Amino acid sequence: MLVCVLAVTAAIGLVALAAFLFRKLDFGTDDREPRGTSAGHSGAMLSSLFLLVFAIAIVVPWTTADSARQNTYAEGQAAVETYWSAAELPAPAGGEVQRELRDYVSFVLDKEWPVMATGRLSPEGSARLDTLRTQVTALSVTGDDARSAKSAVLDRVADLSAARRQRAADAAAAPPPGVLILTIVTGIIVLVFPFLAGARPRGQAIVPLVAMAALLGVGIYLTWDISHVFRGGLAVKPDAFLSALQEFQRIPEGR
């Protein structure tokens, strides 16, 4: 924050110094017109700055949401792979692990997904996975096939836990607050710039300004609306977990 303040102060100081020196040296001519060189240059730069910040405010959440959506499919696939591996465990352990997995995925769909709109995951989900891992670890099995199946299930549960941690990171992800603030500030400056430059729009000239103000308001609202991965216009849906539940139905029950 201090660096930002210093940068702004230095930039303003540079403009003041340049204005003083050019006037002192009697270089150039006075520019008081709203359509003059100074106003035109400043208006173009302010518009470019607004477009740059606005693009960042749109692109960053868009790419974050796309990545989070792919991560949910990776997590759903990890659940399916765990379910397949559990089918190889000896009875009744295989069926019990599969039932725990079904309950976990149903919990994510029904109870945890709405919570993620607040930027966090439910602690109960992590507790369920920890219980599942402990349950499989405690299994006493004999034979190479059973031991191999147990090891495979533990590996798949570890993958599922890692995918869950990534989903927690995605839920907490948000653009830097300064981006939205700068978008609002530059948008306001762009709106009032003609008045700051000395123009007094009248009649039909005010119509484009009103239209621009309305569109800027909509654009700024959209940058806020899509700023979170699991809510708003770009909210990631639980399609991956719905697909996982459907996939469970065609996988054989634990033997």
Count of individual domains: 1
Helical/strand content category: mainly alpha
Mean pLDDT: 83
Which residue ranges are poorly predicted, with pLDDT under 50 across at least 5 consecutive positions? none
Number of strands: 0
Number of helices: 8
Share of residues in helices: over 70%
Order of helices and strands: HHHHHHHH
Overall shape: elongated
User: Main β-sheet: number of strands, strand sense, barrel status?
Assistant: none
State which percent range the strand residues make up: under 5%
End-to-end C-alpha gap: 61 Å
Task: Return Rg in Å.
Answer: 29 Å
Helices and strands in order, then pairings?
Elements: H1 2-24, H2 37-86, H3 93-115, H4 123-137, H5 144-172, H6 177-196, H7 206-225, H8 239-248
Helix pairs in contact: 2-3, 2-5, 2-6, 2-7, 2-8, 3-4, 3-8, 4-5, 6-7
Your description of this structure?
By secondary structure, the chain is mainly α. It has one domain. It has helices spanning 2-24, 37-86, 93-115, 123-137, 144-172, 177-196, 206-225, 239-248. Helix 2 runs parallel beside helix 8 (239-248) and helix 3 packs antiparallel against helix 8. The termini are far apart.
Give a brief rundown of this model:
The chain has 255 residues and is mostly helical. It has eight helices and no strands.
